[in-house]
């Protein structure tokens, strides 16, 4: 259920972004019949419709915002309960070996409540930013398109298709980080969900290990790990750094520069409680070259999936602008071309195709 909640929230934000792009397309229109002499008047008229667009976008957010917040809270709670149960299952051997069972403390639930509050704040911020940046996209399309016409570079119709298509491909930003990088809604929400999942899993485990006063953890391992994490796989570390036998967890590069977590936002590794003399080591290290090859393939597949989704968003926005059938067919061909690229990649790599990841809603 928790995984389904993750997918549901991600899909919901894809739907919000899509409907916002369609609203922009509907209000802007295709500019057909507007020449160089009339483009200034067209620009003024369209900018005066910014309030119309804002109302349309607010309706979209009102339709989905409560659901996004509630679904994310549900997701966190389900994931938290699942992880506590998984912890107990994994550590049954410790209890069977004589370690006294310790029920979950308030410390564990306080961590969960803190994550809920953080998630509410993040979703509210994203919703607010999407409204602001969708308006900025609208203004940007109008400004660039009219400038192209005035400089004689293209007709208004041609320029609107080009500029609107660029915005549809890049997506509506959800945030601009401290480094000045724009995160599209799709990319940022995906990152938030991965971070949320890692935070919940880590916080529940950290809380339960605190309950049991367990200091050692074993990192999991898998092929396709990010290159900087390969050397840390399948090894035991000390949470406190006080162990004389095992290195301190803080000495690893897991999560540094990302979110401060030991395993990082987009990392598939997990840490497991380890009690020397009782726990059995579960994981092994993998060949670095093989792991790097798998990692590169996984990143390539994600890139191709994003490209297909981008082309689909562009097609939907152009449709909302009521462009010609000929231009819609060109947009369809772009989608098909990118799907063919994916087919070729899957055939050459032998990876499993995830067609649901190629769809926009």
Number of strands: 5
What topology, given as strand order, has the largest sheet?
Answer: 4-3-5
Structural class: mainly alpha
Q: What letter string, H or E per element, gives the SSE order? A: HHHHHHEEHEEEHH
The structural domain count equals: 3
CA radius of gyration: 25 Å
Largest sheet: 3 strands, antiparallel
Distance, first to last CA: 19 Å
Helical percent range? Answer: 55-70%
Taken as a percent bin, the fraction of beta residues is under 5%
Number of helices: 9
Q: Choose one word for the global shape.
A: elongated
Low-pLDDT segments, ≥5 res: 254-263
Mean pLDDT across the residues is 86
Q: Could you characterize what this model shows?
A:
The model is unreliable at 254-263 (pLDDT under 50). The protein is mostly helical and 361 residues long. The chain folds into three domains: 2-212; 214-286, no CATH class; 293-358. It contains nine helices and five strands. The protein is elongated, with a radius of gyration of 25 Å. The protein starts with a helix and ends in a 12-residue tail after the last helix.
Short description:
This protein folds into three domains: 2-212; 214-286, no CATH class; 293-358. The protein is 63% helix and 5% strand. The chain is built from nine helices and five strands.
Would you spell out the secondary-structure blueprint of this structure?
Blueprint: H1 2-28, H2 39-47, H3 50-90, H4 92-96, H5 106-150, H6 156-170, E1 173-176, E2 182-184, H7 185-212, E3 216-219, E4 236-238, E5 271-274, H8 288-320, H9 325-349
Antiparallel strand pairs: 1-2, 3-4, 3-5
Helix pairs in contact: 1-3, 1-5, 1-7, 1-8, 2-5, 3-5, 3-7, 5-6, 5-7, 6-8, 8-9
């Amino acid at each position: 259920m928790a995984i389904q909640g993750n997918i549901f929230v991600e899909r919901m934000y894809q739907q919000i972004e899509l409907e916002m792009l369609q609203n922009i397309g509907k209000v802007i229109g295709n500019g057909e019949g507007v020449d160089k002499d009339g483009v200034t008047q067209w620009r003024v008229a369209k900018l005066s419709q910014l309030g119309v667009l804002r109302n349309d976008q607010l309706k979209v957010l009102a339709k989905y915002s409560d659901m996004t917040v509630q679904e994310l809270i549900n997701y966190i709670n389900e994931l938290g309960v699942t992880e506590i149960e998984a912890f107990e299952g994994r550590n049954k051997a410790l209890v069977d070996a004589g370690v006294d069972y310790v029920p979950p403390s308030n410390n564990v639930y306080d961590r969960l409540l803190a994550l809920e509050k953080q998630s509410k704040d993040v979703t509210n911020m994203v919703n607010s930013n999407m409204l602001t940046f969708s308006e900025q996209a609208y203004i940007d399309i109008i400004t660039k398109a009219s400038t192209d016409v005035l400089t004689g570079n293209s007709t208004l119709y041609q320029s609107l298709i080009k500029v609107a298509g660029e915005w549809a491909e890049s997506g509506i930003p959800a945030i601009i980080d401290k480094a000045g990088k724009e995160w599209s809604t799709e990319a940022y929400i995906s990152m938030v969900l991965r971070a949320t999942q890692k935070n919940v899993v880590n916080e529940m485990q950290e809380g339960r290990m605190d309950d049991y006063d367990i200091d050692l953890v074993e990192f999991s391992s898998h092929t396709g790990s990010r290159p900087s994490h390969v050397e840390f796989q399948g090894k035991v570390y000390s949470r406190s750094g006080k162990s004389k036998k095992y290195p301190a967890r803080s000495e690893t590069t897991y999560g540094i520069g990302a979110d401060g977590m030991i395993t990082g936002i987009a990392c598939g590794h997990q840490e497991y409680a380890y009690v020397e003399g009782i726990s059995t080591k579960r994981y092994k290290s993998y060949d670095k070259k093989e792991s790097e090859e798998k990692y590169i393939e996984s990143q390539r597949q994600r890139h191709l999936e994003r490209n297909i989704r981008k082309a689909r968003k562009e097609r939907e926005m152009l449709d909302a602008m009521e462009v010609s059938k000929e231009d819609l067919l060109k947009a369809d061909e772009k989608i098909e071309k990118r799907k063919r690229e994916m087919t070729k990649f899957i055939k050459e790599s032998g990876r499993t195709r995830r067609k649901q990841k190629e769809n926009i809603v």
